[in-house]
Amino acid sequence: METLGKIIVIGSGNWGTALAKIFSENNKVYLWTIDQKEADKINKKHESPFLPNIKLPENIIVEAKFSRQVESNDVVVIAIPSRFIESLTDEFTANKITNCIIVNASKGVEHTTLKTVWETMMNKIPTLKFANLSGPTIAREIAEDIPAKAILAARDVALLFQLQQKLENNLLKFEFSRDIKGVELASALKGLIAIAVGIADGVGFKTNIFGVIMTYGVHEFVTIMKFLGVYHKTAYSIAGMGDLITTCISENSRNRKFGKLLGLGYSRDEALQEVGMVVEGVSMAKTIDKLAKFNLSIPLISCVTRIIFEDVKDVKKELLTTLNSISG
Fold it and tell me: N or C: lower Cβ tally within 10 Å for the chain?
């Protein structure tokens, strides 16, 4: 079995930086950012502006992306907003990167085709070795060395064992799955339900309603996954339900924070500006809204979409009316 090479994390936001930090427990890690100017700032302070007061270890080297050659046995962790995946894949092709190991940690789908990151990248570069990392993993908690458990998904079982040996440590443990698309889809959908919980919090509802929203949310995951021909039981795994619950209850969740601001009366644009980082659930809402044309029964997700994109005057009434209309 081939020994894995260096670890490169693409994306120096809070999630990419948190992953670089956790993987640096046992490895030297190269953290790739947009340009050398940004890299120099982080290297100088050993701190990311996205993770204030978190000291980065010396064995994390921050550099502009594609600063060094990527070998076939290198592990390239992708932690960028999903809307940039296609252009990143084009950059791979331009830099003749065709057969390394990809560990995708981005959450979202391609918004015109509903393709997952796996499908988007493998369609363009079929020689890549691909795995997906997902689960209940809030970036700030990972960066603070609080233990977590995630799912690694890959078609190649041998690759899963290799990645476990390379990436796992005392703080981060893995379950395995071969359902790459299901894990990716569950990861992308959970942001919508976290927005709903945030809205409920903003309008003054408490844990009774939060529990209802999360339960109905999982039901709608299953509806969407069945429609798309994905193994729906993944919705009940830590990649689905586990990630959903974590994102819904965490005060560090961008999706929940965005939803809470909507519940407090902020407009969509005001809420996005206040959060200050990409809110993947908003992009996902645009995508899932297209499924309404197929008459899928996803009333909660449809409600969240209306609140985000339409001028809903009474957000509290809209949410409560929707929840009361759902029966199991």
Answer: C
